[in-house]
């Protein structure tokens, strides 16, 4: 009986028994990345979402090559007339706006603006949410109460009006939109990660780390944090869609920067120019469709990862 008793704890401590190379922060981080990358091979939703994201990322990276005109350049015809409301054709793939600007070029460069805001805001949201969730879930007590009350306050503030007011006071810029999104969207990811941490802190491998003399912060960021990375990545994909949708809404309402072309800027320009009344579907349908696709991609990725990594969360 004695060997069986001795072997039982070793099976519960795989992370601590794999030697120095596999017990550091970097190997654990890489295992989280590998877990994230393995999911699309197991789930069609995640694969479709990542393919959509990849297409938009490539478009944003090579936007300078794909554009046929400068997005804010006012164009003229050969007869020196303003190239206003030209129908789609070989020279202008999606036609031109009422102000004589090329719609296709605006759509392409708008991808870069959308992803810049979406990815930056999502990284900020998930970074804040992950740190708050880790500290709150692991330490508990007054730190947990303080951080969760802050999250309650953030959840109670109307999201879009807050971002609009912030952009109005600080100025119309994409950075201010990102700040507004980061300040209010972190509680959702923080609460979920907090729940996961509260479960992990009671596991045997955490207790074993304490026995070996590991400090609280080392346990938190070396032993617990890598185990919630997949959950953090999952919320990143969701936050990207939310951030892009928010930026488009703010720009559509006229609170976005006037010198930066985004999909929301295009929709606002089309609305102000009464493109719908003139039936210029080539003007407002493409940016609207791009917003829908990005948000759908975030949903597909979150759905796929939820089914593979967290099957108990599946409804």
Automatic annotation (TrEMBL):
Topological type in the membrane: Multi-pass membrane protein
Gene Ontology CC terms: plasma membrane
Domain of life: Bacteria
UniProt similarity note: Belongs to the binding-protein-dependent transport system permease family.
UniProt subcellular location: Cell membrane
Protein name: ABC-type dipeptide/oligopeptide/nickel transport system, permease component
UniProt source species: Ketogulonicigenium vulgare (strain WSH-001)
Domain called ABC transmembrane type-1: residue spans: 111-302
Assigned keywords, A-Z: Cell membrane, Membrane, Peptide transport, Plasmid, Protein transport, Transmembrane, Transmembrane helix, Transport
Gene Ontology annotations of biological process type: protein transport
UniProt GO molecular function: dipeptide transmembrane transporter activity
Signal peptide: none
TM annotation in the entry: 44-66, 114-139, 159-186, 220-245, 283-305
Key word ATP-binding present: no
Primary subcellular site in the record, as a coarse category: membrane
InterPro entries: BP-dependent_transpt_permease, MetI-like, MetI-like_sf, OppC_N
């Amino acid at each position: 009986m004695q060997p069986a008793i001795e072997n039982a704890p070793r099976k519960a401590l795989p992370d601590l028994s794999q030697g120095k190379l596999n017990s550091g922060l970097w190997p654990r981080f890489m295992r989280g990345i590998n877990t994230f990358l393995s999911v699309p091979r197991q789930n069609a939703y995640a694969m479709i979402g990542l393919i959509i994201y990849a297409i938009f990322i490539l478009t944003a990276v090579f936007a300078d090559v794909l554009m046929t005109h400068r997005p804010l350049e006012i164009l003229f015809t050969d007869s020196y007339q303003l190239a206003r409301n030209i129908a789609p054709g070989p020279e202008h793939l999606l036609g031109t706006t009422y102000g004589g600007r090329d719609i296709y070029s605006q759509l392409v460069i708008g991808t870069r603006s959308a992803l810049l805001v979406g990815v930056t805001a999502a990284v900020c949201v998930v970074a804040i949410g992950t740190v708050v969730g880790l500290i709150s879930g692991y330490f508990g007590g007054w730190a947990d109460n303080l951080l969760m009350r802050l999250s309650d306050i953030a959840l109670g503030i109307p999201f879009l009006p807050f971002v609009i007011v912030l952009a109005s006071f600080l100025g119309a810029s994409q950075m201010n939109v990102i700040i507004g999104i980061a300040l209010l969207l972190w509680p959702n990811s923080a609460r979920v990660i907090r729940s996961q941490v509260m479960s992990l802190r009671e596991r045997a491998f955490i207790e074993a780390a304490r026995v070996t003399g590991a400090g609280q912060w080392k346990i938190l960021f070396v032993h617990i944090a890598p185990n919630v990375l997949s959950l953090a990545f999952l919320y990143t994909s969701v936050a990207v869609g939310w951030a892009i949708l928010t930026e488009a809404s703010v720009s559509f309402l006229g609170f976005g920067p006037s010198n930066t072309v985004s999909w929301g800027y295009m929709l606002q320009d089309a609305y102000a120019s009464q493109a719908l009344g003139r039936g210029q579907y080539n003007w407002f349908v493409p940016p609207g469709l791009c917003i829908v696709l990005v948000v759908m991609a975030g949903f597909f990725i979150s759905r796929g990862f939820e089914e593979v990594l967290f099957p108990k969360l599946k409804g």
